[in-house]
């Protein structure tokens, strides 16, 4: 489905335990170029892409677009921190209180699984409210946590992923979700 699959550029596998995932902000509409530049520089990067149907005045075409506009993920250790910022197309790290925010491995895995899978809607009766903190408890997205932003129909919910403060529509049966008690 994706031409730009996550690339594993790992010259020294023993240092993986020191690596963390980080989100980067890219120049507008430069995600694919930045991804190629990162992987060419030997940096492990991930650009989640989804297929969408675009319509022009004369035709329709399926195109791959980033799941999160202007965002890309890198799996690096501290020694690669500044190397990443020197890549053309990269603007900055996503930060909280001035520090780059590491993204938990399970959230990256959940995004990868979401991009690679489609869910079929199921009928169920769980009651969720906008603003609820939820976790996916079944299926390939198991472990993904976020805040429920909106409920579009019986199955389609919009969840904001905590670590990057970005929203993504997930077609997940409500029976796959559980409210997280604070």
Give the tags.
Alpha-Beta Plaits, five-stranded antiparallel β-sheet, 2 domains, alpha+beta, SH3 type barrels, 182 residues, 36% strand, 3 helices, single chain
Word description of this protein:
It is built from three helices and 14 strands. With 182 residues, it is an alpha+beta fold. The strands form four sheets. Strands 1, 2, 5, 6 and 9 form a five-stranded antiparallel beta sheet that branches. The chain is globular. The relative contact order is 0.17. The N terminus is likely disordered.
Give a brief description.
With 182 residues, the protein is an alpha+beta fold.
Cα(first) to Cα(last) distance is 38 Å
CATH architecture of the largest domain: 2-Layer Sandwich
Q: Which CATH first-tier class of the largest domain would you pick?
A: Alpha Beta
Roughly how many Å is the radius of gyration? 17 Å
SSE string: EHEEEEHEEEEHEEEEE
Coarse shape: globular
> Runs with pLDDT <50, length 5+?
1-15, 119-125
Average pLDDT works out at: 81
What is the percent of helical residues? Answer: 10-25%
The fourth-level CATH homologous superfamily of the largest domain is NusG, N-terminal domain
Outline the biggest β-sheet. Answer: 5 strands, antiparallel
Total strand count, please? 14
How many H/I helices?
A: 3
* Helix vs. strand class: alpha+beta
Strand content: 35-45%
User: How many discrete structural domains?
Assistant: 2
What fold name stands as the CATH topology of the largest domain?
A: Alpha-Beta Plaits
């Amino acid at each position: 489905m994706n031409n730009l699959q996550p690339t594993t550029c790992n010259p020294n596998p023993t240092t993986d335990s020191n690596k963390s995932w980080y989100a980067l902000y890219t120049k507008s509409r430069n995600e694919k170029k930045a991804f190629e530049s990162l992987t060419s520089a030997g940096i492990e990067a991930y650009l989640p892409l989804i297929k969408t149907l675009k319509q022009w005045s004369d035709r329709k075409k399926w195109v791959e677009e980033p799941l999160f506009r202007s965002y890309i993920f890198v799996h690096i250790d501290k020694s690669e921190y500044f190397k990443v910022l020197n890549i053309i197309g990269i603007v900055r790290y996503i930060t909280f209180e001035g520090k780059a925010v590491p993204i938990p491995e399970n959230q990256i895995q959940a995004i990868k699984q979401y991009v690679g899978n489609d869910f079929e809607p199921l009928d169920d009766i769980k009651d969720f409210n906008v603003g609820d903190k939820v976790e996916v408890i079944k299926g390939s997205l198991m472990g993904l946590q976020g805040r429920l932003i909106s409920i579009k129909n019986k199955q389609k919910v919009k969840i904001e992923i905590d670590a990057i403060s970005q929203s993504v529509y997930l077609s997940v049966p409500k029976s796959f979700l559980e409210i997280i008690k604070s």
